[in-house]
Each structure stands twice: as structure tokens, then as C-alpha cells.
Amino acid sequence: MTTHELSFDEIHHTLATIEIPSCPAVVTEVMTEAQKDDPDLAKLSRVISSDVGMAAFTIKLANSAHFLRGAPVANVPMAVSRLGTRNIVCVVVAAALRASMSRDLPTAFLEQFWNRAGTVASAAGLLARRLRGVQADTAYSYALFHDAAIPVMMKRFGDYTKMMIEVKTNGLSLPQTEMERYNCNHAIVGGLLANNWNLPQNIARAIRHHHDEESYDHELKFVSKEELGLMATVHLAERLVADLLGETDIENGSLFDMSVAHFGLTEDDLYVFQEALTDALT
Q1: pTM of the full predicted structure?
Q2: What are the sequence ranges of the domains in the chain?
Q3: What is the CATH number that goes with domain 8-281?
Q4: Where are the alpha helices (H) located in the chain, listed in sequence order?
Q5: Other residues' Cβ atoms within 10 Å of the Cβ of residue 139
Q6: How far is CA 75 from CA 28, 70, 71, 199, 273, in A?
Q7: Nearest-angstrom CA–CA distance, 223 and 234
Q8: What residues have CB less than 8 Å from 266, skipping those under 6 apart?
Q9: pLDDT by residue, tens only, the chain of 282 residues
Q10: C-alpha distances in angstroms, 181 versus 89, 176, 212?
Q11: Measured distance CA(12)–CA(8) in Å, rounded
Q12: In this structure, are residues 207 and 93 in contact, taking their beta carbons and an 8 Å threshold?
């Protein structure tokens, strides 16, 4: 697949055909406070508590396998204290993205999509603790958002669901099929979405390039070492989660093997990772 910075024509075409959800004011408010040198956790808790869906998502994440420490939390202030400001941004963006799509797509699909995203994110966070040079919390946030443009494309293209079924049935590559059919893919749209929502640039760039095989070519220096580490961690996580659930991995193709080579992993390493994921996720 061709890997290049978005050209003007590519950006123009994508923005002209796909509606990128606008960033809500509550997200901007939380980001502004969370990025301060001394953020006010009480203020963050009040803002999050004002939105029922966001509050529920915050508590759910704080009690997830990735963050659970000790007794479960029962309210937003406790959840905010456990998650910390860096992860609060992740919570707010995820909840707002989910809400922005809820009016246009089937509830069952969104529930399944975000549950799967949460599972992959938990797996990525767990793997990151065992891999070199990858921050677990950043890996979790990136994994949660890296496919967030799939619902956006489903909203735009009426045959997207049918295309997904064809991809799974025939063992095709999702990003390649998207490019052939729509002249863009969820990685390109995801990069635009991440920039529009002011996500950290390392996460936005990793989203944009997470299907570019040339990213693994160190001589090209296509992405930073940190960004490649995030991408490789999630390429591992997606395949291992798919194997765990008995599903077909329709996204990664050779990227899984590249991620294994990137970290210098052995078959024994992968077995240990799979066992750890099985214990943590089931």
C-alpha cells in the first residue's frame, strides 16, 4: 500500500466525501484543564459528571482490567483519581466519539465495536508492559482510537457493512479493499479525525500510518521510534486477540510478522503473551 503524507487532493477528496465529527466543547474543556501543569481534578470530575454517558464510561474504564487496582471505584472523582489526567483525556474523547455516532448507527454495532476496541486496548496495555520502549497507558489510548474511523466510514458509505462481510468471508485485506472501493481507508480518515479532535500528534500519526508497511523500514524513518512502537504493539494485540476469540484478522496481513520482527520475539514469547492475555481477558 502506498505510504505518503496526505496530499492536498487526498485531504480535499476525503473531507469532501466524509463528514468528520466535530470536537465537542466538553472535550476541549477537559483537554485544556488536563494539560495544565497543576490540573484541578475536582473541576475535571464536575465536567465529566455533567454528562451521564461520559461519567459511566469513566467509571467503567477505571474498573477495567487495565486500570483496576484494589477495590472497584463507585463514582467519578474516585475514577478520575485512579486514571490520572493523561487517561482522562482518553476517556472523554472515547465517550464523545461514541456519543457522536450513536444517532446514526445501530446501537448493537456500536456496542460491539467499542467493546472490541476496549479488549484490544487492554491487550495492548498488557503487552506494552512486557515490551521495550512502549508506554502502557499511551498504547492503551492509541489502541482504543486507532480504528475509530470505521464507524465514520460506515455512516458515510451505505455498502460499508456489506463490504466488511465480503472482506471477512473472502479473507481480504480491509484497508486495501477500502482504498479500492472508496479511494480512502480508515487509517487516512482516522488521522484526520485524530487531528480534528486534537489528539496528541504521536497518536494521530500512528493512527494515520498504522497500515503502512513502509513504517517498519527504519531507513525511511517514516514514523518516529515511539510511533512505530505503538503501531507494532497494537498489530500484535489485534492478532493475539483475534486468535483468542477464534476470529479472522482482516486488518494486519504481514504487519503482524513485521511487529514480531520489530520486537525480536520468539514463538515462546508469543505463547507467553497469549497465555497472559487469556488469563487477563477471560
Answers
A1: 0.83
A2: 8-281
A3: 1.10.3210.10
A4: 8-17, 25-34, 41-49, 52-62, 76-83, 85-101, 107-128, 136-145, 149-156, 160-170, 174-182, 186-196, 201-208, 225-245, 255-263, 267-281
A5: 29
A6: 22, 15, 12, 26, 33
A7: 15
A8: none
A9: 444 454 556 555 655 677 777 778 888 888 888 878 888 989 989 988 888 888 888 888 888 777 777 788 899 999 988 888 777 887 788 888 888 887 778 888 888 888 888 899 989 999 999 998 898 888 988 998 899 999 999 988 999 999 999 998 888 889 889 988 888 899 989 998 888 888 888 999 999 999 999 999 988 788 999 999 999 999 999 999 999 988 877 676 789 999 999 999 999 999 999 999 998 877
A10: 34, 9, 18
A11: 6
A12: no
- Do 193 and 153 meet the contact criterion of CB atoms below 8 Å apart? no
Cell numbers at 116, concatenated? 472490541
Q: C-alpha grid cell for residue 256?
A: 503482524
Name 156's Cβ contacts closer than 8 Å, sequence gap at least 6.
Answer: 17, 18, 19
Q: How many residues does the chain have?
A: 282
Per-residue cell: 43: 473541576
Q: Please give the grid coordinates belonging to residue 258.
A: 513485521
Pull the grid cell for residue 49. 459528571
